[in-house]
Amino acid sequence: MNIKNPSKRGIQRLLIGVCLLSLTCGISSAQESTEALEQRVQTLSTQLIAAKQQLAQSEQKRVEAERGLKSLASREAAVSAQEAALAAAAAPSASKITPGDLIPALKGLEIGGAIRVNYAIGDYGDKTGGPSRAEDDGGTFGLDTFRINADYARGAWLGKVEYRFYGDYHFLHTGWLGYDFEDNSQVQVGVNRVPFGPGAYGNSQSWFFDQHYYAGLSDDMDLGIKYTTDIGEFSIDLAYYYSDEGQWAGDSNDAARYSYDVIDESGDGYEERNQFNVRVIYTTSLGEVDVDFGASAQYGMLKSNGTQDDGDHYAVSFHPVFKWNNWTLAPQLTYYNYDIDGYIAGDPDGDLIQFGAYDFPTLMATEAWIPSISLSYYYEVDQVEWLDYVIPFVEYSSIVKQESSFNDSEFFTIGAAWARGNWFIYTELATSNGNDFIGNETAFGSRFGSNPDNEWQSRFNINFGYYF
Q: What is the phi/psi pair of residue 406, to 5°?
């Protein structure tokens, strides 16, 4: 830090002036009266005292400035660490293959990936005769995901492709080409993440996400164009999507995909078309608390493949994020509505719509509120060598359906994410009365819809991920 301090040089010059004046006074003492000399000395003494006071004030300001900068740096470091931890939940730092080192034409291309395995055990009571997740009462352990990533950045051009394999089905997760403009704005064209909610994964830290994900309102990949820019303290996203990311390889007719979308498993349902999105986030501070006030909105068409009329859908959400030291509090409130004709058997009023992902079709209520909240803490571990940081969290979300005969779908998760080098591990206990991945299979496919069982069940889950 380089803080100029002119008061010190002023004192030096003043002392030199005192000496010169004393010499001059000695030479001209015969010509000056004693009273005049005393008056001059008094004046110089007063000036010297004032200079010392100015120096003391300057020193005090310097110390306060250094303290303020240290405090600011500490807060910024904590926020940066938290954001880095959140990004690591998707792809912790790791060495990647760079083909450009061998082939100059491929400069800017990096190849990476990840492999994840999963352990799960569920407490499903008399539905299965004991703790179970599949056939074994001791839980199940198996391959979760294998994925390949290709990231490209050369000059202002950039792009990303990610393909994932899940046992008997596989699909494209991401595939877009983009351009960075000189004003720090960016455009992406292709299968990219829909700008809805507070961040890439909504407000959740969990491997399960929250109920927004299963309603297609967080971490949703669609085919279209997205533009992102910053204006002062505002971050703005504008997007148009022609369709969802489409069906890939699997046993289902239309559900082999990563993100939850409206699907048409029977051939006479609906599919997404012409969706528009806007998201605005305002960054500010409330005392020592950093806040991102955010709001999202989307509207799209629903193309009918049957005899029913075309429909449409919309959703709005308010999602502030509060950060204080290493704490993050992220509440979110969302309302969505799908306006369609009834086409599901036993649902003449159109209160259900078919959704799907991970090669499994399911039913979703067409109108609901989704309240959600996440509290997490980023803790950098210095005490042990085998752990870099841990993020404990607790989360709750619910699909509060507007159809009075439907049961709400609540979801509660407590757990932690653990990071070490290229490893990222989730340990979680999830409890729900309306999520397809928590509970026995008897009500699978209806929990996000009418949720007829309305029964709380639990699942303990460990997900081991290695990123390369």
A: -90, 145
Note whether 158 and 115 are within 8 A (CB): no
- Compute the distance between CA of residue 401 and CA of residue 222 in angstroms, rounded to an integer: 25
Decide if 298 contacts 194 (C-beta within 8 A).
Answer: yes
Specify the CATH superfamily of domain 97-467.
Porin (2.40.160.10)
Tokens for 421, please give them: 């080098």
Residue 142 CA to its chain's centroid (Å): 28
| Residue carrying structure tokens 């010297």 | 48
CB 436 within 8 Å of CB 415? no
What the block records as the tokens of 31 is 């010509």
User: How do residues 221-252 score in pLDDT, each as one tens digit?
Assistant: 999 999 999 999 999 999 999 999 999 999 99
Bridge partners for 304 per DSSP: 270
Helix (H) or strand (E) holding 421: none
Residue carrying the six token digits 């030199």: 16
d(CA 165, CA 171) in angstroms, rounded, equals: 7
Are 439 and 457 a contacting pair, CB within 8 Å?
Answer: yes
DSSP assignment letter at 341: -
Q: Give me the average pLDDT of each 10-residue run along the chain (468 residues).
A: 42 42 41 56 62 56 43 39 47 62 80 95 62 60 93 95 95 98 96 97 96 98 98 97 97 97 96 98 97 98 97 98 97 98 95 97 98 98 93 98 97 98 97 90 84 92 96
Q: For 399, phi and psi rounded to 5 degrees?
A: -100, 105
70 φ, ψ (degrees, to nearest 5): -65, -45
Q: Beta strand 311-318 with 327-339: parallel, antiparallel or unpaired?
A: antiparallel
Token code pair at residue 443: 């009500």
Residue in the structure block whose two tokens are 């080409």: 177
Question: Are the beta carbons of 396 and 412 closer than 8 angstroms?
Answer: yes
Is 388 in contact with 419 (CB distance < 8 Å)? Answer: yes
374, 385 Cβ separation under 8 angstroms = no
pLDDT tens-digit series, residues 170-182: 999 999 999 999 9
Integer-rounded Cα Rg, in Å, for the chain is 32
